[in-house]
Amino acid sequence: MNPGKVKQAGQSTFNSFKMSMPVLIGVLLLMSLITTVMPREYYHVIFTGNKILDPVLGAAVGSIAAGNPLTSYIIGGELLKQGISLLAVTAFMVAWVTVGILQLPAESVMLGKRFALVRNSVSFIMAVLIALLTSFTLGVLR
Q: Most buried in the list 51, 70, 71, 120, measured by CB within 10 Å?
C-alpha cells in the first residue's frame, strides 16, 4: 500500500463528505418537519377505497413522508385498523422505505441526478405493482 495514495483517498473522501453535509442536514430537517406536520388521521382522508387510485396515492404519500422500515410497520398496522385498504397500505409502506422525495437532493449530490431520478421512479412504480400483486395474491389465497 502506498501511504500517499491512502492519504489522498482519505482527503478526497473527507472533502466529499464535508461538501454533502449541508444537504444531508437540510434533508433530515425537512423530513422531520413533514413527518411531524402530517398527522396520521390525514391519511384516512386521502385513501377512499378506490382499487386503482389508492395504491398510487399510497405510494405518493409514502414517497413524501419517507421513513424507516420499523416505523412503516407501526403506521401500516394503524392504517389497517382504521379501515384503509391493504392496497393503499402496502403501496404506502413500500414507498415509505424505498422512495425518497425528500432525500432526492442529497441522493442527487452523492450518486448523480440521473441515477437518483431513475431509482426513485422505478421504486415508485414497483411500490404500486407490489401493492397490486400482494392484494391479488391474498385474494386468490382466500
A: 120
Sign of CA dihedral 16, 17, 20, 22: negative
Asked if 101 and 35 touch (Cβ cutoff 8 Å), the reply is: no
22-40 pLDDT, tens digit per residue, is 877 776 676 677 667 767 6
Q: Which of 64, 54, 61 is nearest to 86 (CA)?
A: 54
Q: Could you tell me if 90 and 58 are in contact, meaning their C-beta atoms sit under 8 angstroms apart?
A: yes
Task: Give the number of other CB atoms < 10 A from CB of residue 67.
Answer: 17
Considering only the C-alpha atoms of the chain, give the largest distance between any 2 of them, rounded to a whole number of Å: 64
Domain around 113 = 3-141
Instruction: For residue 114, give the C-alpha cell.
Output: 440521473
pLDDT digits (tens, 9 = 90+) for 87-105: 999 999 999 999 988 888 8
CA atoms of 121 and 103, how far apart (whole Å): 13
Number of domains in the chain: 1
The three-state (H, E, C) secondary structure of 34-54, written as one string = HHHHCCCHHHHHHCCCCCCHH
